[in-house]
C-alpha cells in the first residue's frame, strides 16, 4: 500500500514538471510600440514659404541694386558729357564784375574805323567761351556792317544778376552817346557881282543822341575763371521798386498787458540809458551777449513799446531814439529784446537790431 502511494506521488510530481516546462516554452508576445508619429506638414509648409520669400526678396534686392547702379553710372556719364556751360557753378559777383569791366568798355565803345573795328572784334573774342559747335562763325558775331557813326560809353553800373541753369545773367545799366552824321540843307548868303543873294547847299553835321539801356551779359564760371557765353544784348531798364507786403507776426499775438508791463518798461528805460553811455564790458550783468555805444551817442527816449509773453519770459519790441551828443541830430532804431526774469530782475537773453 505504501508503494502505491509513493508511485502516485511520483506521477503527480512528473505531471506538474511537464506542465511547468510547457509554460516556460510559451513565448510572451512583444509589446507593440504605440507611439503616434507627429504631423510635420505645417512645419514643412512654413519652411518652404520662408525659403521662397527669401529667394524672392533677394531677387528684388538684386534688381533694385542693379537699376540704381546703372542709374548712377548713367548720371555720371551724362554729367561728364554735358557741355561746359551746363555745369554752372555758384558765381562770385565781385570777381565777375572785375572780369567784365574791360569787356563792357570794348563792347559799348564803337569807332567807325576799319582798324578799330577789327581790333574791337579781336579783343572781345578773348572774353568769349570756346565752343566746338556754333550756330554761326565766331568771326561774324561782332561784325559791324553798315555803321554810320561812333558810340561812346559814358557810364555803367551793375543793375541786377539773375541766376540761370546754364549761366548767370549780369545786367548793367549803361549810358552811352551815339555820334552820327546828318546831312542838312542850309541857306547861305553869297556875292553875285555887286549884289548878294541867298543860296541853299547841303552840309554834313555830327549830331549826338544819349541813351540809357540795360546791357545783358550771360556769364559762366569755373573756379576763379570766367567767360561770356553768348553775345550780349540790350533791353529797356525796368523798375526795381515793388509793392511788397510782409505779414507782421505780432498781429496774430495778443500783447501782454499784465502787472509786469510797467516794470518791464522801467527796465528798458534803464537798459537803453546804460546801453548808450556804458562800455561793452559793463553790460555783462544786464545782457548775455554784451554790446554798448560807449558814450558815442546820447539816449533820448523810447517812443513805442510792445511786450509779448513767451514760454521763457517776455519779448519786447521798441523804437528807441538816440541823439548825436554834439549837435543833437536824432537817430532812431528798432530793437527786439528777449527777456527773462529772476526775482523781479530782468536780463536780456538776446538783443536784435531790426
From TrEMBL:
UniProt xrefs under Pfam families: TpcC (PF12642)
Keywords from the named record: Membrane, Transmembrane, Transmembrane helix
Superkingdom of this protein's organism: Bacteria
Presence of the UniProt keyword Transmembrane in the record: yes
Transmembrane keyword on record: yes
Membrane spanning residue stretches: 43-67
Gene3D superfamilies tied to this protein: 3.10.450.540
InterPro entries: TcpC, TcpC_C
UniProt xrefs under CDD domains: TcpC_C, TcpC_N
Protein name (record): Conjugal transfer protein
Source organism of the structure: Bacillus glycinifermentans
Amino acid at each position: 500500500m505504501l508503494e502505491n502511494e509513493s508511485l502516485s506521488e511520483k506521477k503527480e510530481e512528473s505531471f506538474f514538471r511537464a506542465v511547468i516546462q510547457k509554460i516556460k516554452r510559451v513565448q510572451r508576445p512583444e509589446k507593440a510600440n504605440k507611439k503616434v508619429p507627429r504631423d510635420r506638414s505645417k512645419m514643412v509648409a512654413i519652411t518652404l514659404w520662408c525659403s521662397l520669400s527669401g529667394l524672392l526678396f533677394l531677387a528684388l534686392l538684386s534688381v533694385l541694386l542693379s537699376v540704381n547702379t546703372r542709374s548712377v553710372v548713367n548720371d555720371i556719364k551724362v554729367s561728364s558729357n554735358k557741355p561746359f556751360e551746363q555745369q554752372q557753378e555758384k558765381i562770385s559777383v565781385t570777381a565777375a564784375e572785375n572780369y567784365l569791366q574791360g569787356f563792357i568798355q570794348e563792347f559799348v565803345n564803337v569807332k567807325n574805323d576799319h582798324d578799330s573795328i577789327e581790333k574791337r572784334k579781336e579783343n572781345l573774342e578773348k572774353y568769349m567761351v570756346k565752343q566746338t559747335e556754333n550756330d554761326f562763325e565766331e568771326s561774324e558775331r561782332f561784325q559791324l556792317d553798315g555803321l554810320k557813326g561812333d558810340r561812346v560809353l559814358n557810364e555803367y553800373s551793375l543793375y541786377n544778376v539773375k541766376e540761370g541753369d546754364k549761366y548767370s545773367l549780369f545786367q548793367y545799366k549803361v549810358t552811352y552817346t551815339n555820334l552820327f552824321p546828318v546831312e542838312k540843307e542850309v541857306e547861305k548868303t553869297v556875292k553875285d557881282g555887286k549884289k548878294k543873294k541867298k543860296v541853299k547847299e547841303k552840309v554834313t553835321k555830327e549830331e549826338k543822341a544819349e541813351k540809357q539801356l540795360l546791357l545783358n551779359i550771360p556769364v559762366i564760371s569755373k573756379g576763379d575763371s570766367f567767360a561770356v557765353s553768348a553775345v550780349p544784348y540790350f533791353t529797356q531798364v525796368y523798375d526795381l521798386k515793388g509793392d511788397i507786403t510782409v505779414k507782421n507776426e505780432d498781429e496774430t499775438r495778443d500783447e501782454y498787458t499784465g502787472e509786469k508791463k510797467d516794470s518791464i518798461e522801467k527796465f528798458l528805460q534803464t537798459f537803453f540809458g546804460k546801453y548808450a553811455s556804458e562800455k561793452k564790458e559793463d553790460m555783462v550783468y544786464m545782457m548775455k551777449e554784451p554790446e554798448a555805444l560807449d558814450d558815442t551817442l546820447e539816449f533820448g527816449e523810447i517812443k513805442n513799446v510792445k511786450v509779448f509773453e513767451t514760454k521763457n519770459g517776455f519779448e519786447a519790441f521798441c523804437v528807441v531814439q538816440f541823439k548825436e551828443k554834439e549837435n543833437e541830430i536824432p537817430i532812431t532804431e528798432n530793437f527786439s529784446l528777449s527777456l527773462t526774469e529772476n526775482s523781479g530782475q530782468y536780463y536780456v537773453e538776446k538783443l536784435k537790431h531790426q
